[in-house]
Give the backbone structure.
Amino acid sequence: MVWLPGVNCDCILRHPRHPDLPLIFSQIGFSAASVGAAAGIKHGPRIRVHYEIYWQDEKGQPPEPIEVRHLWLTVAVADRLLCPDGGWYPFSAEETRQRLSAILLEKRDIRLITRSGVISGLYGKDHVLIDSIYPDGNMLEIHLSTRVLTDLPLNPLNTWLDDSLTLSSVWDTAVWQ
């Protein structure tokens, strides 16, 4: 199956050593009425970006800035989830967790593919995952960081598409569609 962010998934987590993991965002918790289905989950933007500058002083030297971007994404994990296009998500909660763990345990060289483009150079440091448990599933808040700061467009409200439609480009190789 070909995964397309914004069509049949919300984003894709990628690492060169593992199969791509399509993920479903969630803005709210599971409702009691959903009973295993995704009726209580609303799709929407759930990537938060926090840009920080740290000043590092190395043994009496003038401080040097270190720029870091932290990303948080909140995704749903359950045995029965609806994809944005209305189809059923093909992975069980257990399989999703296993695939996610395999990618996060790599700790670096992780990519996040969204409908707006690709964020590369992601790594895990300190806490990486917060698990919120609901009766019908879980919400996972994934925290990754990057020092690669050139992959966001100047106007984040614009949508960029990869000209080869492989969803593997970064911003400097993308074109307007």
